[in-house]
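AB hydrolase-1 domain-containing protein
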Amino acid sequence: MAVGRIIGSFFQYASISIAAAIGLYATLLALLTISTLQSHAVYLHAIQMTWFKDLDVPENFGFLKNQVTPFSIKTPDGERLYAWHILPIELYRKHEQSLIAEPVGFVSDFTSRIAFQLLRDDPDARLILHMHGAGGTVGSGYRVPNYRALSAGQPGKIHVLTFDYRGFGKSTGSPSEDGLILDAHAVVDWAMKIAGIPPSRILIFGQSMGTAVSIAVSEKLAMQSPPVVFAGTVLIAPFVDCATLVSTYRVAGVIPILSPLASFPLLFNYLRRLIQDQWPSKDRIARYIRSNEVNGEKYRLAIIHAQDDYDIPWHHTEVVFWHAVNASIPTGISYEELEVRKLDSQVDLGAAGSIMEWRTDNGVIREEVLKTGLHDVIMGYPIVTMAVMRFFEAADPSFTC
């Protein structure tokens, strides 16, 4: 009898626990249908991840005195985007004494600073426009070593401009899909019109959520008249679109969002339709490629992902790559046919992963899959430096890294 009561109590408590878990999960889903809460869940912009460090003092993040200049860029709709301009280390060394003599901290007029003049006045200067992922700020997590990896290929010439989207860090406003695209466009305009850097000397870099922003602004500019196409676009850990992402995404790699509902198609599809910001990267990258092919514009695209990425599964890159390749061929190519092509053309690098490169008369599309690198650690890897070097030199062979 005692054993029976114990077993009965166990099942009772288990049933209560399961019911509570289901209730909490249902409550979470209901809350995510609220616009404001959904925005916080998608962008995580309220999470700073700078551990009480002052962004206006970049030296706190390991930079040399005045190697980084904090300033702001104004958007067409009146928001102010907080930005860092980061000097490459060799260029900094050559001008160290002049740079350390300047005041430190946020500057209201970046054009008056030596760092700006070094960017604007050097015809060999290259600029990377860095678009970070969800959550945090320009100084969070693995972003700082990422900036170093980006300029490492030519430490005397490659500048980095990174910024926080509206609602992130010290930037004003609230995030939205249209808003973040407008932010990226404002940064591009600043680079070309204020700093005077032509698109052939600009590379777009995006990671995670930043890949969606990068693809969106690249597509928009490639489809305008006349088209604007940059030296290259490097995407780290992209996703197909928001609906697909939330159907596979697990918070911290453990807690699923919508995947438990996959067995209930009606409910699953209903909840997917409630996602406000869709970020259809697969469609945008196809239009970007197709536009460049039609216009005869030279383009370079690298898509990089780690197989052990538990935030955004690496198969998203396979799908994004296929959409890009498919758009480059007038008659198209099926996903299955491309997989067969990979059997012959993919380069197996063993523990370093694999590379698949697709070339047309106008462009190159690279898929680089690493065995390891997680979601963020990969940003400081040499593969990022190599992608930058490869594209800048391809855009201008005289620019040897």
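thats it. The chain has two domains: 2-31, 47-395. The domain at 47-395 is CATH 3.40.50.1820 (Rossmann fold). bye
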